[in-house]
Amino acid sequence: MMNRALIHTDSWLILVAVFILSSCAIRDDIPYPIVEAQITSFEVEGQCNETDDGFAEARIDKVARTIDVHVSDTVNLSRLRLLRFGVSNDAKGGFVAGEVLDCSRGSLTCTLTTYQNYEWTIHVSQVILREVQIDGQVGDAVIDPINRSMIAYVASTQKLGALAVRKFTLGGQHGKVLPDPTEASTFDFSRSRNFTVTPANTGIAETWHVFVYTTDAKEEATATAFGYSVSALITGTVPVGTTPVVEFREATGAADWIRVNPNQVKVSSRNFEAEPTGLRPNTTYEYRVTAGSSVTAVQTFTTAGNEQLENSSFDEWSISGTGNRALYQPWGEGQPQYWDTGNHGATTVGASNSTYVDEGGRRYANLQSKYIVIKFAAGNIFTGQYVKTDGTNGILSFGRPFTSFPTKMRFDYKYQTSTINRTGGDWKENYGNYITRELYEGLKGKPDSCNVYIALGDWEPVTFEGVECPYLIRTRPSELHLFDFNDPHLIAYASLTKGENVSVWTTETLTLNYRVRNRRPRYVIVVASSSKYGDYFTGGDASLLQLDNIELLYE
């Protein structure tokens, strides 16, 4: 009886176990990881910038999941060949290089799939530059590609039967017009004329109706100016067929006008731009433009100052705490903070890895990459403030107020590279982020690189826990927000990446690349790191960047 009872009990337990296992088998409560699918590269035939005078990379917005691209008038939007298409995270779907796309509606969508689906929208804009320039023209011609007509006005002093035509691109700059009125010295517009226009994108001939009339109105020169620190940008319009003469002088005490060298004046159609140089900072200037018989009113602009970074030789430091928890701070005792480091996070588990050194009569920043107990940390220093430690990650505010226009940044540095032996940390194990996987596979065992960059921008600040942050940085992988060199608020930048030893003090000069020319910066961001990919916890334990004497140049 006892044996039968035991057998019965064992059988019951087995049945319960099978039921439990079966219940588990038919349920799937484990969520898939969030792995975003992103388009990393996109290029089509005929791709160009907004004025079709050169190539421009597609603008990829990873947040909105949109791509904006311009194409020349030489391609047919309904049969647009895709040249390059790259995705992240081994995503499925999308397009294939060599595929022919129909973009005739201006946009198209595609869905990329990882563990989730992500829809992307591609906007394609065709640049068709239609322009008419006739000597004595008043205002822009009215060009109607829908009804295939054009109306232009010229001054009443002009003879409609013999007008000099400088540009006549009704079919776009790559299209054809017959007869071509620019081939003769003058053309008869005393009556309406018909032209055969063949756009390059379709190759189909069209008939256009063209009307030219006289008017008593006059075309006057216009001008506006934007002052930099030691130069200015003067732009405006002039009557067709005239050459602008741009002059300037200091607003107080200077009697003679200074003429901008004609080589510094660019004219395109009726538009011009001139850039007088050698100006004094924080100075108000007068300017005027003469074009034919038209002279603008005298106007003024003021140049910006020649600002420098505070404590840019890193002579001022203070230390709080003691021993392995000593926190090195790149500002003097009782002085306002301008620079900061990631030491606040590092010293929660170990010693500071961004410090200073006194050597040979100079004090400089000593930025050391280290593996500190549980995580790799690059030596770093930046303009801004370390705001908060978030677990083992940091929340930082990049940027300090700044309104000048430096042309270059010069600094002294030494660098000791080391073999990359730390690759990703919790990025790799917990999140599988495509950047880290790429780094892990491609960089481990290779020499580490230091990175120094400067960025000027007009970012809108955000407030985080009472701190106004020009540019908020988060290094936690699930909330990652790093500096974006494609940010539309970025005005100018320059950077250095070095992956080899620089054993003696070396002076490096970086030239800033200005993306826009008529916006004033609000902030400057300068960052230096002993490991370029330190944000992704990737680098070599022994990499060391030493930095001194940062100076902004105005030339």
Describe, in plain words, how this protein is organized in 3D:
The chain is mainly beta and 555 residues long. 8% of the residues lie in helices and 43% in strands. It has 4 helices and 47 strands. The strands form 12 sheets. Strands 28, 33, 34, 35, 38, 41, 42, 44 and 45 form a 9-stranded antiparallel β-sheet that branches. β29 and β30 form a beta hairpin. The N terminus is likely disordered.
Short description:
This protein has 555 residues and is mainly β. The longest helix is centred in the first third of the chain and has 24 residues, at 2-25. The relative contact order is 0.09.
Coarse structural class: mainly beta
Q: Tell me, briefly, the overall form.
A: flat
- Oligomer, anyone? single chain
Mean pLDDT: 87
Low-confidence stretches: 1-31, 426-436
Task: Tell me the distance between the termini.
Answer: 103 Å
Specify the helix fraction band: under 10%
Strand content: 35-45%
Radius of gyration: 32 Å
Report the count of strand segments: 47
Number of helices: 4
Biggest sheet layout? 9 strands, antiparallel
Secondary-structure map with pairings?
Blueprint: H1 2-25, E1 39-44, E2 47-48, E3 59-61, E4 66-71, E5 80-87, E6 92-93, E7 100-101, E8 107-113, E9 117-126, E10 132-134, E11 142-144, E12 149-155, E13 165-168, E14 176-178, E15 193-198, E16 206-215, E17 222-227, E18 232-237, E19 245-250, E20 258-259, E21 265-268, E22 271-274, E23 284-291, E24 294-295, E25 299-302, E26 318-320, E27 327-329, E28 339-340, H2 343-346, E29 354-359, E30 362-368, E31 370-372, E32 375-377, E33 380-390, E34 393-398, E35 400-401, E36 408-416, E37 422-423, H3 426-431, H4 434-443, E38 450-457, E39 462-464, E40 467-469, E41 471-474, E42 490-498, E43 502-511, E44 513-514, E45 523-529, E46 538-539, E47 544-553
Parallel strand pairs: 4-9, 12-16
Antiparallel strand pairs: 1-5, 2-4, 3-4, 5-7, 6-8, 8-9, 10-13, 11-12, 14-15, 15-16, 17-18, 18-22, 19-20, 19-23, 21-22, 23-24, 23-25, 26-27, 28-33, 29-30, 30-47, 31-32, 33-34, 33-45, 34-41, 35-45, 36-43, 36-47, 37-46, 38-42, 38-45, 39-40, 42-44
